[in-house]
Amino acid sequence: MTTTVKPKIQVPEKKKESASRGSVYQSNQLNLWYDTNHALKNIDLDIKENEVTAIIGPSGCGKSTYIKTLNRMTETIPSVKTSGEIIYRGKNILEKGYKFEELRTKVGMVFQKPNPFPKSIYENIAYGPRIHGIKNKKILDQIVEKSLRGAAIWDEVKDRLNENAYSLSGGQQQRICIARCLAIEPDVILMDEPTSALDPISTLKVEELVQELKKEYSIIIVTHNMQQAARISDKTAFFLNGEVIEFDETDKIFSNPSDKRTEDYISGRFG
Ligand code: ADP
């Protein structure tokens, strides 16, 4: 007789309106190789707008590679080869001739380690809009305030906008990096383990922020923290050895996974 061990991760109740949502990214039979290392294998994922999609799985299974490919960051690595499609808003971003500058203005990225510029808090936020041609000081002031408010850090920094961003704590720096993304009015925010270098209180703040941000943006977050995926995401994709083993509503993944390997992973049997 086989016994099923029920995963112990609690998933908070979330509204389900997924069926009516449009797709922001669709990967179709996406493959990626670093030389001979086949790091992504036939990835099919349909990522919906205004949802938080979590990518989970053990170390080295391709999570970071996948999220970087959504922003075409992996193509700067000479050994990388890809096949298949990533459709972003109706266009295949892997196709020759795709104007990828456009993608860069639509997709914001937040990394594991906060990486503010060595500039003032104000300049960190105003930098992107300036690059996009906004020079009017009054408009830049408005963008800076709106972005910092959007990243739930305005009250903490409004009286020190000219201070170097490095003077802030790690958690504050990460919210500055999120505000920097918001300043370019992105469509999607990609987050690669955004809280793994943060303390628990800063982690909670970023998690609450993600819940707020999904009202306006689509968010894809790589996390090795399964509780975090359960708390904040609407959908979860479980990656293993470069494959998507299961992709479903987060409560389904954590309460009643279809694949034994998913169940083994979320109940802590490996990884
Ligand atoms: P994860 O984010 O799940 O930890 P990664 O996407 O970082 O996994 O890695 C997937 C596989 O790709 C691993 O075998 C890793 O060694 C390889 N890999 C990742 N980045 C590079 C790189 N820049 N060059 C060569 N191989 C890489």
Automatic annotation (TrEMBL):
This is Phosphate ABC transporter ATP-binding protein. One of its GO terms (molecular function) is phosphate transmembrane transporter activity. Keywords: ATP-binding, Hydrolase, Nucleotide-binding, Transport. Signal peptide: none annotated. Gene3D superfamilies: P-loop containing nucleotide triphosphate hydrolases (3.40.50.300). One of its GO terms (biological process) is phosphate ion transmembrane transport. Coiled coil: none annotated. InterPro entries: AAA+_ATPase (IPR003593), ABC_transporter-like_ATP-bd (IPR003439), ABC_transporter-like_CS (IPR017871), P-loop_NTPase (IPR027417), PstB-like (IPR005670). GO terms for cellular component: membrane. It is an enzyme of class 3 (hydrolase). Its EC number is 3.6.3.27. Residues 1-22 are annotated as: Disordered. Residues 25-266 form the ABC transporter domain.
